[in-house]
Amino acid sequence: xxxxxxxxxxxxxxxxxxxxxxxxxxxxxxxxxxxxxxxxxxxxxxxxxxxxxxxxxxxxxxxxxxxxxxxxxxxxxxxxxxxxxxxxxxxxxxxxxxxxxxxxxxxxxxxxxxxxxxxxxxxxxxxxxxxxxxxxxxxxxxxxxxxxxxxxxxxxxxxxxxxxxxxxxxxxxxxxxxxxxxxxxxxxxxxxxxxxxxxxxxxxxxxxxxxxxxxxxxxxxxxxxxxxxxxxxxxxxxxxxxxxxxxxxxxxxxxxxxxxxxxxxxxxxxxxxxxxxxxxxxxxxxxxxxxxxxxxxxxxxxxxxxxxxxxxxxxxxxxxxxxxxxxxxxxxxxxxxxxxxxxxxxxxxxxxxxxxxxxxxxxxxxxxxxxxxxxxxxxxxxxxxxxxxxxxxxxxxxxxxxxxxxxxxxxxxxxxxxxxxxxxxxxxxxxxxxxxx
Length: 437
Prior knowledge:
This protein is 38% helix and 16% strand. By secondary structure, the protein is of the alpha/beta class.
């Protein structure tokens, strides 16, 4: 069975056999360049460093499993200590769930139990995971999949502080957008009742919703509002943590320190399932004498943590942050700008670090598909583009109207330019179908 789409969609996907560096190979011998790190997770590619392999093998031979509620392990303490060095000094408490959805569920549980308040504020353009609470926190069309089981209470949506594809705008300048969006958010909080709101949970950089960075001053303003009303600030770093934006954490693109940070994906290079919930010292100490009220069988799995520890070391020793910011970002901008200039059916290219996006447009300059997942004006063109990506050896997810570009952090400038050449050929197919519609 498939996950987000119908099962029949699996029949057209490549049957993958192995990978190396930034490439994947199917059973027919076709070689694909991974253009989006699959779901923006295989940040370090497919050649597993010997240190990672050895650490996993060693942990498997010594202690392959330890249920986190019944015993501690050396690797759990060591990974927490390493992450403590990489996060602000105020953040000292750690949980290690298995995936991003689980991390966000745990973060919301922590916030609610710590504050005694029920509500979580999220943005409309957001994605926080596929489990029930995380999907209700989500703002994009996938939230609709919960309608068959009924919506969960305790979630409030606010607008993102930038122009999205639609009629509403907070202003014409970044300063206006930040100021007006903050005023809107504070009015919402007052109308909901600050005493009912446990946390705001925002993606530091909007990920699958289109790679959007908040305007200067907005996140800092959110931090001030949270402090004013005793509300926790949760930064969802599941997609952008561990170097994706050219900083170790996405929130480091602003002058803020969250109360809770969640991340996954890049934590272990996606080589083994693992995620992270990191909290400020006062939150950690609160739960020294109060039950946390969250758990999972594979929380703090020792083999996954051994993989994560060496993956982070590999990333640091390879200076991946500098590579993402100073090497990948300029070439990413060059490629995106060139494609947007070439094709009228593309618009609003943007990028930060090794994370980029373009909007697919129809023949009238409108988004080819609405944000709720409906009303695709050129389904044949989107299908043609998907097929052309595969035919040109380009592998990755596509969620119209967005075309993401999130290559592995180990990619070279020449490989990145080769990827844009392949995408150019695929876009030519899309543009041709749109022009004839």
